Amino acid sequence: MIRYFLFLSLLVLMAPVARTQDISVPLPVIVDTDGAPDDMRALCMLLSLQEVELLGVVASDGAVDPLTGYEKARQLFASAGTPHIPLATGRKHIADPPPWREFCTSVPWADGLAEGKEKPEAAVPLMNRWLNRGKERVILICLGSLTSVSDLLAAYPESRDKIRKIVWYNEGLEYRPLTNYALDREAAERVLSSGITLDVIGVTDRPEMKWTEEMIATVEDTETLAAKLIAAMFRSKAFTAGRHGKEAGVMIWDELIPVYLIYPELFDMEPDLERPNLAVSKDYFPAGISDRILQILSGQYSLENNIVFDVFPVDPGLYAYDVRERMQEILEKHGREEWKLGVLTNEIHGHLGIYSIVGAKMGLKARELLGAAVDDAEVLSYAGSLPPLSCLNDGLQVSTGATVGMGTIRVVEGEGLAARAVVTAGGKSVDMRLKPEYERQVEDDISRGILLYGNLTEGYWKLIRELALKYWADWDRDEMFEVVEKGK
């Protein structure tokens, strides 16, 4: 019983960390679709995400047959301006098609004319090729059965090492009739027992989780191509006639997965006790998901990793007048993430400081080099504990998430102090130091301020504020540091 409790505790502690999504580079993704209307909407959302690299799409047997799904996807990508995305077909294995096949077959995905009459390639060898196109492991998104994934693992057992995880739309981990599990029960059981990390998304007891007329009208008024394609599908004769008296056509099902991919915090994921590599969505936030769907399709979504804010404020009217003057320049040169970290650093630091800004830039650059998310890094600072040099530590804490409270930042005291830090994450380290010419400029400017205004006077602090804003805008985090990389 004690061991069972300890195991439970470990799962609770590990799950949020293990499933935190770092999207510092685009996520390589392969999609397996069975051709239903919600698959089309999910694909449009994935095409709208700059953070997703769609390596290829497999049309599997399910809501429609593989060849029909293949042609629907070809037309969609031709209409969306992405005809270069490769396609393949899975094997036909369903003897008794699901009752919704006629409806799904009749609903148009798009009216684009794909060039040529290509003969579709078989899914398994092509999926293996997609998986091996680079070093980075790939996310498999399965919107229907797990047949093609099962066939892939049987033909190429080593391919499992190239799969980062599988995200599958289904109702739980057990067999139920009329679910994606039921489309190929044997394949599902083989994949679920493979040991590959697999997240199951899908909650059916949410009748409010559907496309309302208000949502559809919003999409119709949205100018993006993906939104226009979805609106056209909703207004097509086949869709409106086929869904008469039915709610299935407007339910938000597969669309949950693109939202989960970049906003996992909206989902309550519960690891399986016996197979901790598996997790199931037990609940989610319907209002938040509906908002995110519309934001993604409009291109007006944000991926800021905030704790309190949904989107960090960039309204100039909220900032001090001298900050407003530099605000647009800083945002354009250095991006929203550095802006956010600089603002937070200076608020906790108590004043606009030079070394605190340097620390914020240093920590962000270190995370970029390491591919680390906030809170993933440990820091060894050589800035000591005496201002002004030690002000670097405040910027480092905010930008890396390595804090005194978390016990993940250590500060060296004594001789050899400098605007320097070693940041470690994922078995790799970067040793970063402010370049000598930048150090000299700071020292000269501070010395000049003391000569002009005296030390720590009102005039001195005014000058420091002006210099901090100037350095924040002028100094490029890609150029201002000496960097030594260590590890993998």
Note down, in words, how this protein is organized:
The protein has 18 helices and 14 strands. By secondary structure, the chain is an alpha/beta fold. The chain folds into two domains: 27-298, Ribonucleoside hydrolase-like (Inosine-uridine Nucleoside N-ribohydrolase, Chain A, Alpha-Beta Complex), CATH 3.90.245; 316-486, 60s Ribosomal Protein L30, Chain: A (2-Layer Sandwich). Helix 6 crosses helix 8 (185-192), helix 15 (354-370) runs parallel beside helix 16 (392-400) and helix 17 (436-453) runs antiparallel to helix 18. It is elongated. The two termini are 40 Å apart. Mean pLDDT is 89; it is low at 1-22.
List the helices and strands and how they pair.
Layout (H helix, E strand, L loop, with lengths): L1 H17 L8 E7 L3 H12 L3 E8 L6 H14 L7 E3 L11 H6 L14 E2 H9 L6 E5 L4 H9 L7 E7 L10 H4 L1 H8 L5 E4 L11 H8 L4 H11 L1 H6 L13 H7 L4 E5 L6 E7 L1 H13 L22 H29 L4 H17 L7 E4 L10 H9 L8 E3 L8 E6 L2 E7 L1 H18 L4 H17 L6 E7 L1
Parallel strand pairs: 1-2, 1-5, 2-3, 3-4, 5-6, 6-7, 7-9, 10-11
Antiparallel strand pairs: 8-9, 10-12, 12-13, 13-14
